[in-house]
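Hi P.,

Sorry for the delay on this. The queue was packed all week, but I finally got your sequence through. Input first:
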Amino acid sequence: MARGTILMVGTRKGLWVGRSDEAREEWSFSGPHFAMEEVYSCMVDTRGEQVRLLAGSASTWLGAQVHRSADLGETWDETPGGAVRFPDDVDASVERIWQLVPGVEPEVVWAGTEPGAVFRSRDGGQTFALERGLWDHPHRTEWGEGFGGQAFHTVLPHPTDPASATVAISTGGVYQTADDGASWEPRNTGIRADFLPEGQQFPAFGQCVHKVTRHPARPERLFLQNHGGVYRSDDHAATWTSIAEGLPSDFGFPVVVHPHDPDTVYVFPLGDGRFPPDGRARVWRSRDAGGSWEELGKGLPDELWAAVVRDAMSADEHAEAGLYVGARNGTVWCSTDAGDTWRCAVTDLPDVMVVRAAAVDL
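Then the structure:
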């Protein structure tokens, strides 16, 4: 088998699965899978001998579901009842699955949902259990809703410590566990909530965090895109420092760290209308952990009046890593040179909600 690339593109009307070789210049796509269902989360699981794809969909009629494929999207199975669901004693139902993330252990999969809850599977995504320590947290009744709803959109298991995980919710902020989910504490010191009155803009929790990421080789450092603000933490989220200086806007949704360089990070700034400033699609890169920024646009359109949402930007792990950006106009662009140049991978899809890619054997 030759080394190749799999690209999952979740949209408001189904999932598309792309394949390419290692050069990633030409793509073939299958889809729509789960037509007319919203796909907010995707996961390419390369931990075992067999690559598995997971996708979280939501239907007005059928509810939320986790779909699994063991043949790179040729066929899919699902769990009766939806896999991710609240226990009988909880008066709530899962509306959307916003996040699917592999854990440290081989069969662990984390899920973040709307309404705001985190679940964990220990059987590869067939069944999930509610993280009760977070659901029963006294802050939960005070968490608000972002424009897109209340959801745990970020789940970051610690790469070497199975008992530690960092999560984020809009609106509620960053929370962290160090005892395998038994307790969770807010980790928002230094993050501004500029929608609150003067003098109250640095609360212990209640921030509208949009996305958090980190590099597995340097787990104590995290990068965060807020609703107004871009931040870095060098002490495992205990404190946060602004790194927004030099960007055309501190508002945006995604933040992605380069898979081979913990100092290189990417954002996609948006203006007041939730489209790129001046309508120009541009990725911004920092090679010094947010100390300075540079604009990247070669191959991206000079006119784009659509947003890039929090999970519609990601990277693969080829030696020459690929970067991917999907917009709500149904287009996905790919770069294989650290963002210097871009080419279109697919266009004319429904609005893109999530992209996930990985190097695999095809």
